[in-house]
C-alpha cells in the first residue's frame, strides 16, 4: 500500500461513504479543515490558515 497523500480537496460528489470505507480498511483516519453543511470536506482555499484539522466522518445519509 502506498503512503502517498490523497487529494481530498475536490468534492466527493456522493462518494463519501465509499471513500470512508476504503480509508477505514487501510487503517487511515481522514481529517478535514472544514466540513460543509452537507457533511463534505471544505475546500482549503476558503479556510483560514490557522485552522486545525479535525477527524472527519462521512455523512450518514
Structure description:
It is a single chain. The chain has 1 helix and 2 strands; from the N terminus they run αββ. The chain is globular. The chain has 61 residues and is an alpha+beta fold. Strands 1-2 form a two-stranded antiparallel sheet. The chain has a domain of 40 residues.
SSE layout and pairing:
Elements: H1 16-25, E1 31-32, E2 54-55
Question: Ends: how far apart?
Answer: 30 Å
> Radius of gyration over alpha carbons?
12 Å
**What's the mean pLDDT score?**
79
Task: Give the helices and strands as they follow along the chain.
Answer: HEE
What low-confidence regions span 5 or more consecutive residues with pLDDT below 50?
none
Shape: globular
What structural class results from the helix and strand content?
A: alpha+beta
Main sheet properties = 2 strands, antiparallel
Q: Care to count the β-strands?
A: 2
Helix content: 10-25%
How many alpha or pi helices? 1
The percent range for strand residues is: 5-15%
Across the major sheet, the strand order is 1-2
What distinguishing features does this structure have?
alpha+beta; 1 helix; 7% strand; globular; 61 residues; single chain
Amino acid at each position: 500500500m502506498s503512503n502517498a497523500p490523497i487529494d481530498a480537496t475536490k468534492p466527493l460528489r456522493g462518494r463519501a461513504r465509499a471513500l470512508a470505507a476504503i480509508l477505514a480498511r487501510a487503517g487511515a483516519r481522514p481529517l478535514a479543515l472544514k466540513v460543509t453543511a452537507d457533511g463534505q470536506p471544505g475546500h482549503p482555499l476558503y479556510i483560514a490558515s490557522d485552522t486545525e484539522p479535525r477527524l472527519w466522518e462521512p455523512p450518514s445519509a
